[in-house]
Amino acid sequence: MAGVATRRERRLALLETTESVPIRFAIVGVQKAATSTLYAMLVRHPRIVGGPQKELRFFIEDRDWEAPDYSSYRRPRLKPTTDLAGDATPAYLFWPRALERMHAYRPEMRLVATFRDPVERACSQWAMERVRHEDYPDLPEAMAMYGADPLPESLPEARSGPALQRSLFARGRYGAQVERGLAVFPREQWLFLEFRDLLAEHQRTLDLTTDHLGIDRFRRHPDLLQRSATPTRNAGTAPTVAALDQLVAGYADDLALFERLTDVDTSSWPTRRVLSGELPIEEFHAKVCGKLGLST
Which of helix, strand or coil describes residue 14? Predict the structure, then answer.
């Protein structure tokens, strides 16, 4: 996308003329779970470097990974007080080998990941893709084509865009992703956050994050800067209740694994509530379609 390319060019140009700071922490996932919101607030901290290009995407690009050049994996120091730079690329947790590459770069990296209900997350990504791509399939077709996709073991790095566009439902297999991540970085280097908690208690979330990064808490917390909200008017047909029920059932084992591996409270997630019998699938279906503006 032109905007991403422009921001990248601005950052690289600044690196040519400005003192810079190496990347020492990363928000690695997940897409459509308030990563942009969290990062936009974090860069208000007097020690954290801001600047163009939120997503550096370094570890999912086609590079010589036998001898990578890290010289561009930095941020320009635009203020004298800033000395801590981060990367906020939510594809890292999902992308095969990205975390291994990150570990080779800096084994002591501090990592942050936010999570939300996997079906709601997928629907939010679907709405985003519909805005970006006119020919993106209706939600029922997307569910039929991609709904059962597992976490991939390899992806084409020369053109990552199409693979990411098809990742609607695989990206919600959080248990498999966290299990893979914990095999690379020890648990103490991870901070796992929950989407609704972040939005409801953003000051507490910021305190948890700055504590995790080893810097002072905000003296004055920034306001909640909510970014990239889900479009609520979407053309196309609604999925059937049966199709949604099948999609929810496909997350059962992975969600159980995710709950064992993290301290994230998933009790309010509709997918968890449907699986436990607490929430009728018909109510979840009505909520999903209402949120997206799809007629049933």
Answer: helix
283: left (phi over 0), alpha (psi -120 to 50) or beta: alpha
Q: How far apart are CA 68 and CA 64, in angstroms?
A: 5
226 three-state secondary structure? coil
Q: Are 109 and 99 in contact (CB under 8 A)?
A: no
End-to-end CA distance of the chain: 33
Domains of the chain plus CATH, in order, are 2-229 (3.40.50.300)
Q: Which of 246, 244, 248 is nearest to 269 (CA)?
A: 248
**What single letter denotes the amino acid at residue 221?**
H
**Which has the closest alpha carbon to 42: 230, 203, 263?**
203
Cβ atoms within 10 Å, residue 179: 16
pLDDT tens digits for range 55-107: 999 999 999 999 999 999 999 998 999 999 999 999 999 999 999 999 999 99
pLDDT confidence of residue 235: 79
Answer whether 0.85 is exceeded by the pTM: yes
